[in-house]
Design goal:
heterodimer; A: mainly beta; 5-stranded mixed beta sheet; 3-stranded antiparallel beta sheet; globular; B: mainly beta; 0% helix
């Protein structure tokens, strides 16, 4: 069965501190991995996907197939990064999202 | 403007009164999906559709129906709503079901309250 684990429900960091949002997945086949972000009272939007290997808003994520992890990182948190973050593998028709991590950046 | 729209955005109803939440996309996407978002549970997939007339169950399909008669529309039907279906619902579409086309575009959400 597909499973996505985001172990932290809430992550609080000070502005300027490094951020790491964890995501571990259990998935058959070779899914494509995504991170989505949801700012307060807004719809979900794509933050980044692993195949593009690009950095969006300073965030990066490395796919570790051995550990089946896709952790999201940013070296210096900004207040505008406060949001809900969801990890989502997408490899077949059915989609399983993680339960999400709320990132709170303290000024 | 490329977008996914949902209607209504807010709905308060009573137990047992049938309702439909509409979802429409103007991007000619093949894949469409419905999710519910609940605190502590994240997003859970209700139903998805690979293309016209092709639908399948997600993780939490009980109490819901869908149809895909046209490529652009994917309504969510609650035949007999119950209070445990009180939730925030999101519709999403994607160019295709897997691979590099797997990015999903989300609608603005529908907040449903069942009394």
């Amino acid at each position: 069965a597909q499973r996505v684990t985001q172990p932290e429900k809430l992550l609080s960091v000070f502005k300027g501190a490094p951020v790491e949002l964890k995501c571990n997945y259990s998935y058959s086949g070779s899914p494509e991995l995504f991170w989505y972000v949801q700012y307060s009272r807004q719809r979900l939007q794509l933050l980044l996907r692993h195949i593009s290997r690009e950095s969006i808003k300073g965030f990066t994520a490395d796919l570790n197939k051995g550990e089946t992890s896709f952790h999201l990182k940013k070296p210096f948190a900004q207040e505008e990064d406060s949001a809900m973050y969801y990890c989502a593998p997408f490899g077949c028709q059915k989609v399983t999202f993680g339960t999400g991590t709320k990132l709170q950046v303290i000024p | 403007e490329a977008q996914v729209t949902q209607n209504p955005r807010y709905l308060i109803t009573v137990t047992g009164k049938k309702l439909t939440v509409t979802c429409s996309q103007n991007m000619n996407h093949e894949y469409m999906s419905w999710y519910r978002q609940d605190p502590g549970l994240g997003l859970r997939q209700i139903y998805y559709s690979m293309n016209v007339e092709v639908t399948d169950k997600g993780d939490v399909p009980e109490g819901y129906k869908v149809s895909r008669k046209e490529k652009r529309n994917f309504p969510l039907i609650l035949e007999s709503p119950s209070p445990n279906q009180t939730s925030l619902y999101f519709c999403a579409s994607s160019p295709q079901a897997s691979g590099s086309g797997g990015e999903q575009f989300f609608g603005p959400g529908t907040r449903l309250t069942v009394l």
